[in-house]
Design goal:
This protein is an alpha+beta fold. Helices cover about 35% and strands about 25% of the residues. The strands form four sheets. Strands 7, 8, 9, 10, 13 and 14 form a six-stranded mixed β-sheet that branches. Strands 2-1-5-4-3 form a five-stranded antiparallel β-sheet, sandwiched between helices. Strands 6-16-15-11-12 form a five-stranded antiparallel β-sheet, with helices on one face. The longest helix is centred in the N-terminal third of the chain and has 28 residues. The N terminus is likely disordered.
Length: about 550
């Protein structure tokens, strides 16, 4: 094969050669009045002639190119030329052979289909950073070339391979570093989330978390379930703006603070008020959204406060979905806002969903459309909380390469019937002031505990705790007063409410003191006890006993 007939006609060669020729011989430039004629003649005589590109020794040029060059021709891609760099990399090749036999090393990078495509289309194509059998990485550019004075049937393809091994290895190291950073961030994120959710007596709960995308920077989504005692449960979900380890660390601090504030048994809006100040102290530039809710089985409602978070969705037993839109305050960390609490019905048979924006927010649609789609998915979702979690995530199209974190918390207030309903009972007595209140309360508690078939020792402890709590309310509280007894499948709860908001505290009574022993006795005999202020003014003091396992 005569290589001279198959010299590469690089793009722009003819235009550049013509441009140089026109510049050198243009009569207009020689007669330009702004340049002396003698000077023009002098330059013309001393300037060496500019050779055309076609006159350069192409073979010598390509042999000195450090990149790998091969030329194939015809429909079978027969080998016409390989340069010295190609020979040094893969050894000698027989000219005239088909490329599939002569250049087998091009099969692994997938170059043969590309040769056919380039020859058919007449357009250059590039494969970036493909690994060859020699272990090095190359970027292959295939350019169509045509033999002089021949038709398109003799079209060839020039293969130009640039060694990019250093760049490929650097990119691989960068990807590995980003992967390790992502794994670290995800591990930190998951370690800060609850490993096991607490299991309230009256609710069934499940949660799921999906880190977003494949990039190193995960978000700051979190959730938690906190049993407050007295049958009440706090539920929280939040989202720290931003991504990466910093967002996860802020999330961990906020979640720890929420658990601490929850132990104070404060109303939801007061908890958010405390969190708002803490978020400003942690990082004034870091903003987080959060919704904090409390479920009281005696009230049948979910009392909540929201700091810029998405609305809670509640599905009743008939499949109707209600959205808790109000009230909503600004995100945590903005400061200067007084949050307020709202409530939404959560009757037996209802399901509530708390979620972060990754579940419903999409770049190509309005946020309200995403929430409406979630409402439709929830209206038809049945089964356990975990099943509902999975269905909602699937319906939202969340995949492993989703571009944002997703956290979902589902809680159900089951409607109990039959033998299961027998394990959940309530009894209440309005207490009227006077000396007869305490005996009436003891008699009421004794009768209720007997009807619930508690063992004798638990019956006696329950009556004693009732007597002490009622006596404390009669002495230090004010009307109206109420005694409430509640049993679940796991515990007995005794609660006394009155109209005074002064919370009792346990103190050590001296031998000569005539009072101050009631709360100490309750704390000693009960599994747990506590007190809180009630929304309408006043307080509730409660204690609970863990039931013996059957």
């Amino acid at each position: 094969m005569n290589f001279t007939r198959w010299s590469a006609r690089l793009p722009g060669t003819q235009r550049r050669a013509a441009a140089r020729t026109d510049t050198a011989v243009s009569p207009d430039r020689r007669s330009d009045g702004s340049v002396p004629a003698a000077r023009v003649e002098q330059l013309t005589e001393e300037a060496p002639p500019v050779p055309a590109v076609d006159d350069l020794p192409v073979r010598d040029v390509l042999d000195r190119v450090p990149a790998l060059v091969a030329l194939v021709y015809g429909p079978e891609h027969r080998l016409a030329y390989v340069n010295d760099a190609y020979v040094a990399a893969f050894g000698m090749r027989d000219l005239g052979e088909r490329a599939r036999e002569a250049l087998r090393e091009l099969d692994e990078p997938g170059l043969f289909p590309l040769l056919d495509q380039v020859q058919r289309s007449g357009r250059p194509r590039t494969l970036k950073s493909r690994k060859a059998p020699d272990g090095r990485s190359y970027t292959f550019t295939c350019t169509p070339v045509t033999e002089r004075d021949k038709g398109s049937g003799d079209r060839g393809v020039l293969v130009f391979a640039t060694d990019v091994t250093d760049h490929a290895e650097a990119a691989a190291r960068l990807r590995a570093s980003e992967r390790r950073q992502r794994e670290t961030a995800v591990t930190l994120q998951r370690s800060l989330l609850p490993q096991e959710l607490e299991e309230p007596d009256d609710l069934r709960v499940a949660a799921t978390y999906h880190p977003g995308g494949t990039e190193a920077a995960v978000g700051g989504d979190w959730y938690d379930v906190i049993t407050l005692g007295g049958g009440r449960t706090a539920l929280v979900i939040g989202d720290v703006m931003g991504r990466g380890v910093r967002a996860a660390a802020v999330m961990g601090q906020l979640r720890t603070a929420v658990r601490a504030y929850a132990r104070l048994d404060l109303p939801p809006h007061e908890v958010l008020q405390l969190l708002d100040g803490l978020a400003t102290e942690i990082d004034a530039n870091q903003i987080a959204t959060c919704v904090y809710a409390i479920h009281d089985p005696n009230e049948g409602r979910l009392v909540y406060a929201s700091a810029g978070h998405l609305p809670i969705l509640v599905r009743d037993e008939n499949g109707t979905v209600q959205r808790a839109d109000e009230p909503t305050g600004p995100p945590l960390g903005t400061g200067g806002w007084v949050h307020t609490s709202g409530s939404i019905s959560l009757t037996p048979g209802s399901t509530a969903v708390l979620y972060t924006d990754g579940l419903v927010e999409r770049r190509d649609e309005d946020l309200d459309e995403g929430i409406a789609a979630l409402e439709r998915a929830l209206s038809g979702a049945t089964g356990t909380p975990q099943v509902i979690c999975d269905r909602l995530v699937r319906s939202a199209g969340v995949t492993p390469d989703h571009d944002d974190d997703v956290a979902v918390l589902v809680l159900q207030h089951p409607a109990r019937t039959g033998a299961d309903a027998e394990l959940f009972r309530n009894a209440a007595l309005e207490l009227l002031g006077g000396v007869e209140a305490a005996p009436r309360a003891r008699a009421f508690a004794s009768g209720v505990l007997t009807s619930w078939r508690f063992p004798t020792d638990l019956h006696d402890l329950g009556v004693l705790a009732t007597s002490e709590l009622v006596a404390n309310s009669l002495q230090h509280g004010s009307p109206p007063m109420r005694l409430r007894l509640r049993r679940t499948d796991r515990r007995l709860i005794i609660e006394v409410t009155d109209g005074d908001d002064h919370l009792p505290r346990r103190r050590r009574a001296e031998p000569g003191d005539e009072s101050g022993r009631g709360i100490a006795i309750v704390a000693t005999i009960a599994t747990n006890w506590g007190s809180r202020r009630t929304p309408g003014g006043g307080k509730a003091v409660w204690c609970e006993f863990v039931l013996p396992k059957p």
